[in-house]
């Protein structure tokens, strides 16, 4: 007998029939002496059979303890209780079906459990934690929430026992994980990247009602705090500050978004393994993606093969392809910028994980920790914030970078189906403005410029913003050149800003927070 | 008396209880006061294979005491199963019911002797002649009585141990009164035969649905007239199924607790009837048709 | 990227321009013209394959026009729509000879 939260649980064992019903009843009564008004739960996990003599015991008990419930009832006993109407009179909870995963294909593995296919239509997620009932309920709730918010996912319909732990069962008909598709059909890599990113963007654009999901920032902040003991003071402080400075974001992140957690079922892409769902800045997601495809296997390339089923080179191709697709650019500088931010959090997590698993006591692990730490310290030197703007590129204001700026803007224009004529006009305007910054903002010193591309829908407007920290200068104040002058009267130059003003619908300038901000706007219809 | 009959309502009827004449712990003489205490207005004592109480109780009843109906519960068996058949309103002075009781008693005594012989042969258990005489002159001795003796003389620690580890070690092809004999005996003395706790068979089976209906139809063929649809061990679902059968076949409906005194944790009057229960037609008819004998 | 193909025929020079005439490539054209224009009376810029022009390109065209006005003539042929639009908004259509 156990007592918890004013509920007395009594275990029933073996068989209860006319031979022992009286004795069982007496034992129960003895155990319940002085517990009038208690809630009573009969745990039937070890009850194999109950005859009508046993039923009468329960019925009488129910009369004295109206809250009586029976838990973990095996199917044979449940059938009897159902047939006789006991299930209508009181709470009768079925025992968890026992499922074996021996020899079953492992189709996914996450932080809290491993997913196996148990037959053609069903998979079971076996939790690492032996006492996982709360975790299972949590995941079911989170999955339901995600589904309500429009994220396609599988929701478990049954809880089972697997060895000494619990599993939740999902229907997953004819589904293949993206890892499996990539390993067996390499020609589908690009398609997988596109779908993977499409889902990722869907997740990141999903707003979650306050309080429904944990805030990933708090988790990452705790990792950063942990790291303070293992990094030079200045670096530790900077790491914490970088995380602290990430603004609150109430959009969803999956938290363990790798290719084993994405399933293709009858042409529909489904997200599984929802227990890590949280809200937070996308950089937190990218950090865990970085670890999944790179971080965990960076020092031992065989790990990725073991975990995902495809090799290191494929993983790198996938990761960079996905990052490029997610950011909407092939721009290497941009991709590296975001990857470096992800690596800061990624390494933080790897180091913490290794240390907590006793890594400092193991020579091999200690070498890994040292490597990650070195990388982390270098990254911290050059990083000023963890957040990123996918449509923003920062680079040195140098004419050699013009082509890169134009290509970056061009990618976003292509994505917005910009007509060729407007594309050319914008191209020219971008050149004129960027070259203007190159020529005047920092001269003769060097400095950076930021270009940001935003495309709004309905009406489709492109807004390109240039920012620099150079000397305050409003190029729009310059008088327009007299375009009616004859060739030998025209000054060579001074046309650039005029062209930009002419081909764009709107050009504005402001100086704010120490920055020149020049905005180009063009309507694409 | 008929006026009183008509105003019966709610849990004021208990037509199934046992006394020391069989395996209860209350003397028949103690019953009237106890049922009155429980607010019961109509009762019947239904000892196993014995009708002694039907002679003892009526003379004791005074003005204002609950109404009494003669009763009995026969343990029956045939090739197809075991049954407990209740008989109500018979005249206890008539030979028919007495012959059936006698037959049941003889079969029971035969079994007691066989068990005692077995215990002596197999385990060497013996008891003083005085104790044996007391046992054999009881109205209705059985396993529990033998078990009590074993505990008393140190052959077993508890009654359950005595039954499970020793008495049940041999299974007799036990003879019982056949259901058609019990039904005929009841009918022959002006009584109404009713199937006790129908869904539970002879007490510990679970018989529902088609199986129950087949069994009922067979017993009706012998002259069975009703079902104990309200019973302390029934859930509302089982009661409803029994009421459905009673209605389908136009049978009487009765209500009983199966009270055994201190031997079982059953309260007098506990039979599933509540203040809100609307008595089914079959029960109203039973209450009108059953005879109340003045003995 | 700008590909410049020159064809000299006595005092006539034909320049085929292919690609983009922008900040990066304009100096190339400027240098090429500066080296070759001595003695040229007729300069033809074939822009059939010129996809793009920015103010840096315009600047080169304007300085070249000023030089050529003194020693002969300069004309642009096969100008496509997008480049023409830049000429138009900047008044270059009035300055240059465009066929």
Describe this structure in words.
The complex is a heterotrimer of chains A (525), B (295) and C (99). Chain A is α+β, with helices and mostly antiparallel strands. Chain A has four domains: 2-94, STAS domain (Transcription Regulator spoIIAA, 2-Layer Sandwich); 105-171, Phosphorylase Kinase, domain 1 (2-Layer Sandwich); 178-382, Alpha-Beta Complex (Aminoglycoside 3'-phosphotransferase, Chain: A, domain 2), CATH 3.90.1200; 392-523, Histidine kinase-like ATPase, C-terminal domain (Heat Shock Protein 90, 2-Layer Sandwich). Helix content of chain A is 42%, strand content 22%. In chain A, the strands form five sheets. Chain A has a six-stranded mixed sheet, covered by helices on one side. Chain A has a five-stranded mixed sheet with strand order 1-2-3-4-5. Chain A has a five-stranded antiparallel sheet with strand order 17-18-19-21-20, with helices on one face. The longest helix of chain A has 25 residues, at 332-356. The radius of gyration of chain A is 31 Å and the shape is elongated. The model of chain A has no long low-confidence stretch (mean pLDDT 91). By secondary structure, chain B is α/β, with parallel strands linked by helices. Chain B has two domains: 13-101 and 176-293, TIM Barrel; 106-169, DNA polymerase, domain 1. Chain B has eleven helices and eight strands. In chain B, the strands form two sheets. Chain B has a five-stranded mixed sheet with strand order 4-5-6-7-8. In chain B, helix 4 packs antiparallel against helix 8 (179-188) and helix 6 packs across helix 7 (159-166). The longest helix of chain B has 29 residues, at 95-123. Chain B is globular. Chain B starts with a helix and ends in a 6-residue tail after the last helix. The relative contact order of chain B is 0.18. Residues 1-6 of chain B have low confidence and may be disordered. Chain C has one domain (2-98): STAS domain (Transcription Regulator spoIIAA), CATH 3.30.750. Chain C has a five-stranded mixed sheet with strand order 1-2-3-4-5. In chain C, a hairpin with a 2-residue loop joins strand 1 (2-9) and strand 2 (12-21). Chain C is globular. The termini of chain C are far apart. The mean pLDDT of chain C is 90. The interface between A and B is medium-sized, with 23 and 23 residues.
